[in-house]
Amino acid sequence: MKRIFSKWLIPIMIGTIGLQIVCPTITSFFLPTIYALDNRESIGNQGELGRSLIPEVQSSDLGGYVQLAETSKTGYVGETVIVSFILSDSVQSVEMILPEEAMIVKEVLPADVEVEKAHDTNKWMIKSEVAGIRIALPLRFEDKGNYEVQIGTERIKIEIIKEEKAVSATDENEAVTEENIVEDEEIDVSQVANAEETMPETDRIEDSQKDETNTSETTLRDPITPLDEINHRDVSNWQEFMLALVDPTINYINVINDFESTDNPTAGLTGVQGNSATSNPNGGAVYIWINASQISRKLVIEGNDHQIDFRAVAVGYVNSTFNANTPWDITFQNIDIVHGNYYGAMNFTNLSGPFQSQSRMRYHNLTNAGNQLIHSLSTPVILSGHVTSHQVVTYTSRSG
């Protein structure tokens, strides 16, 4: 019996080893499936770092989740051109195809948006920390011509022209209007010529027009936008300023000191959405959304040549603030504004299109530095007096 077992044992062992050498595909056929299943089982037990190393499977269909604000645009050589688009609620990134001549102005991108160049020379991926938001892509071209930008499956045609800059003046004391940062479509230029018609006479405001509840001896400057009756409030800090904005009984905010937005810009405030900013990062972009019911009105913000540093904050309004009988009509006058938010220190971007169109933003004798003055695509903007805006990487704040 022992002889028979040993007689067959040796050929069986030799045959098994030979089979593995001659036919290795048998093992390779089964092992990858086992390994793949094991790997898939283990993913659920990995931490965030482990999961981040596993590539996500993405659909090759790039359409259906990008909406461009416009399909054509004109810009100038060497100046920033803004391409605005909206991502759907479930999307945080999208592929872009840019012409080789296009340069992304990364220093003015919002802090929560980043761009990454793909292996192909003209393909980029733009990513947002939040899904379903409007993204403003700043581009610059150094040569004139016609270009096409593709975002997802949407396309926009951009014509870049050379701007012939010429300055003529017949009177040194003539009011000069200069605004190079706000996009052309954001300004109702026809209103500028009529700005002087809204100027009141230069007589001082009578004491009877002042807020009777305010016992200060403040002398108010004439509002460039006429008010039937002046109900003013003096403000010297950020919280006082914001509380006056949401108070519908106040139509004249009188700034009596330089100040800046606080580290927690919504602390102590009422009438703002719960998702408004509670931090104020240097070099970032945060938002305060005012939602107090039907408080829109004609409002003058008199700066008295003081400065407000909004820092990273953009103040915006939602539809609940709108009163059809008294649409928003906000005037900034005799003031210096500095800030770092692409959407401007204050805007109507989150109002619906019709509400934006009925609203007005006026600037009279104003200087703006940092990021662009305003971004509200459907809002008429009226400029008068001396208005300057400089888009720069850094700015100087009087508040330190």
Gap between N and C termini, in Å?
100 Å
Shape: elongated
Portion of residues in beta strands equals: 25-35%
Largest sheet: 8 strands, parallel
Q: Pairing-aware structural class of the strands and helices?
A: alpha/beta
Q: How many beta-strand runs?
A: 21
Number of helices: 6
Number of domains: 2
SSE string, helix = H, strand = E? HHHEEEEEEEEEEHEHEEEEEEEEHEE
Report the average pLDDT across residues.
76
Classify the helix fraction into a percent range: 10-25%
Rg over C-alpha atoms, rounded to the nearest angstrom: 31 Å
Report low-confidence residues grouped into runs of 5 or more.
Answer: 25-64, 165-216
Q: What is the element layout, followed by pairings?
A:
Layout: H1 2-22, H2 25-43, H3 48-52, E1 66-68, E2 72-76, E3 80-87, E4 93-97, E5 102-104, E6 113-117, E7 123-128, E8 134-141, E9 145-151, E10 154-161, H4 189-192, E11 232-235, H5 238-245, E12 252-255, E13 259-260, E14 286-290, E15 298-302, E16 307-311, E17 313-317, E18 329-339, E19 346-347, H6 353-358, E20 360-370, E21 381-391
Provide a descriptive summary of the structure in words.
There is one protein chain. The protein has helices at 2-22, 25-43, 48-52, 189-192, 238-245, 353-358, and strands at 66-68, 72-76, 80-87, 93-97, 102-104, 113-117, 123-128, 134-141, 145-151, 154-161, 232-235, 252-255, 259-260, 286-290, 298-302, 307-311, 313-317, 329-339, 346-347, 360-370, 381-391. The protein is elongated, with a radius of gyration of 31 Å. The protein folds into 2 domains: 66-161, Immunoglobulin-like (Sandwich); 184-201 and 221-391, no CATH class. With 400 residues, it is an alpha/beta fold. Strand 6 (113-117) and strand 7 form a beta hairpin. The model is unreliable at 25-64 and 165-216 (pLDDT under 50). Strands 11, 12, 13, 15, 16, 18, 20 and 21 form an 8-stranded parallel β-sheet that branches. The chain has a 6-stranded mixed β-sheet with strand order 2-10-9-4-7-6, with no helix packed on it. Residues 201-213 have a biased composition (Basic and acidic residues). This is WxL domain surface protein. Keywords: Membrane, Transmembrane, Transmembrane helix.
